Hints:
Elements: H1 2-35, H2 39-53, H3 60-73, H4 77-90, H5 97-111, H6 114-122, H7 127-141, H8 147-156, H9 161-172, H10 181-190, E1 211-218, H11 229-251, E2 255-262, H12 267-276, E3 284-286, H13 291-304, E4 307-310, E5 325-327, H14 332-346, E6 352-358, H15 361-376, E7 380-387, H16 392-395, E8 417-421, H17 425-437, E9 444-447, H18 458-463, E10 467-469, H19 479-492, H20 498-517, E11 530-531, E12 537-538, E13 551-555, E14 558-560
Parallel strand pairs: 1-2, 1-3, 3-4, 4-5, 6-7, 6-8, 8-9, 9-10
Antiparallel strand pairs: 10-13, 11-12, 13-14
Keywords: Signal
InterPro entries: Peripla_BP_I (IPR028082), TPR-like_helical_dom_sf (IPR011990), TPR_rpt (IPR019734)
Pfam family, one: TPR_6
Amino acid sequence: MKKFFLLLIFCFATLNIFAQESAKLRYENGKSLFREGRYALARENFETVLETENYGGAYAELASYYYALSSLRLGELDRAKSMYLQILNKYPDWPYIDEVKYGLADAYFQSGNIFEAVEMLKSIENKNLREEGRNMKMYYLLAVSDLSYLTELLQKYPKDKDLAILLAERSYLQPLYEQDRNLLDFLVKEYDLDAERYNALGGLRNIKKDEYDVAVMLPFQSDRFRGAKTKKNFVMDLYEGIKIAIDSLERNGVNIKLFAFDTKVDSLHTAKIIESGDLDRMDLIIGPLYEGPFKAVSQFGFDKKINVIHPLSDKVEYITENPFSYLLKSSYVTQAMNAANYAAQNLNRNKNYMIFYSDNNRDSLMAATYRKYLVDEGFTNLIFRKVEVDEIQESMDFLAKMNDDRVFKVAEDSVGHIFLATHDKRLIAKALSTLDIRDEKIPMITTDEIFDISTLSYDQVERLGVRIISTDYVDRENGTFDSFRRFYIGKTGTLPSKYLCLGFDLMYYFGTQMENNGKYFQLEIDDQYFEGQLTPAYNFFQSNDNRYTPIIQFVDAKLLLPDQIEDLKYEPINRDK
Length: 577
C-alpha cells in the first residue's frame, strides 16, 4: 500500500512537472507570436497556459497580462478590460501591477471611458510609467473637442495642470468669436499659464493720444457706382456720417484726424495703397467694403497691429482669426444667438418650434446656432429643414393644409414659433403668405430681407407678429435721432439716410472708445452695453463683433425694439369665439 501511495505521489509530481514544462512552452510560444504581431494566435497560447495553470502557477500573472495586452492590440476592448480587472483583483501585489493599470487606462481611453482612464492613471506609482501615462492621456485627450467635457474633467481633477493646459489650448484655438475669455483668464491665473500665449492680442500695450488718425477706405470713384446714383449715395452717405461724427466729437474735446482713401473696389489698387506706407501711422481703419480689399487691409492691420472695422458686413469669417478685425454689426452667428435668446425670453409660452433655412453656409450656420442655443433652454425642435430655392412653393404648405373637417393638420397650439434663417426674400414671402392663411398667429423670426419684398404690406407683417433681425436698424423713436434729423434737414434740405446714420454712429462710438480707452480700446473696454446715438446699442467686450442685435417688430405701424413694446407675449386667436 505504501508503495502505491509513493507511486501516486510520483505520478502527480511527474504530471505537475510536465504541466509546468507544457505551460512554459506555451507561454514562450505565445510570447514569440506576440512579438511577431500575431496577437490572436498568441492569445490562444496564453489562454491555454491559464487553463493549464488554473490561474495559480508560475506563469499565471504573465499569461494573464499578455492575454489582456493581446486583446487590446486586437481591439477587443471588453476582453482586455475584463482580464486587466481580474489581474488587479487577483494579484494586487504583483511587481508589475502598474503595467496592468497602464494597459487598463489605455483600454478605457479607447472605449471612451475617459474619467475611468484618468482615475486609473492617477493610481500608478512607478515614476517612469506615470510619465508615459501622462503622454498617453494627452494623446487621447487631444482628440476631445467638447470643451464642456474637458471643463467637467478639470472640475473633477482640479490639480491636474495637464488638463488645464489642454483646456486652455482648446479654448484658445476656437475662433475668436467663440472664445470664452473669462475661462482663459481663470486658467491663466489659477494654473500659472503663459498669459501672453493665451492672450489674443499677444501682450499688447495700450497707447493713449491727444489726437487719433483714422483712415476711411471706400470705393468713392468706382466705375461700378457711376450711373447708379443710389449706390453712390450709400458710399458717400456713409462717409458723410463719419465726417459729421468727427465734428461732434471735436466739440466734445475728442480730436480725430481723418484720411480718405479710394479703394475703387480693386484689390490691386488697395495693395498699392498699403505698399505706399500711408496707412502705417493710422490708429484705426474703417473699411474697405468688398471682400478682396477688406481681407488685404485686415491682414495689414494684423501685421501692423491696427484695428480695422468693416462698417456693413456681418460675415463671421472676417473676424475668425484676426483679433484686430472688427464688424460694426453683429455677425450672423451672433444674430442667431441673440434671436434665440430673444425667443427664450419672449416666446417661451410654447417651447415647440420649427426651423427652416436656405441652402447656403451662412443661413445653415444661423439655423444650427439657433437650435443649439434653444436646446440648452429646454425648447423642442419639431422641424429642422433645409429649403432649396426651387422648393419654396411646397416648403411650408403643410402648415396651411386642412383635414376633411376644415381643421388645420398642424394644430394651432402645437407650434410656439418659427425661425426662418434665410436671406432669400422669396422664401420669406412664401412663408408669410402660408402663415396668413391660418387664423391664429405663429410668431416668426426672420431677417431684414423682409423689407425688400415689394408686395408685402407692413400691416400684414404686424398682424402676423413677425420679429425681424435688423442689424441696420436706426432707432427713430430715439430723441437724439429727432434732433439729428432736424439738424441734417436744416443743413441739406434732405432726410438723413440709413447709411449716413450708421456712419455717424460708427465714428462716434469708436472715437469715444479711443478717447476713453486708448488706441487699443479692446484692452480696457467694459462689459456693458453703450447706447448708440442713432442706433440702439454696442457691446464689444471680449468680442470682435457687436454683441447687441436689434430684434424689432411692427406695433401700431411703428418699428419698435422689445423694451419699447409693453407686451410682446402673443395671444393666439380663440377660434371658438
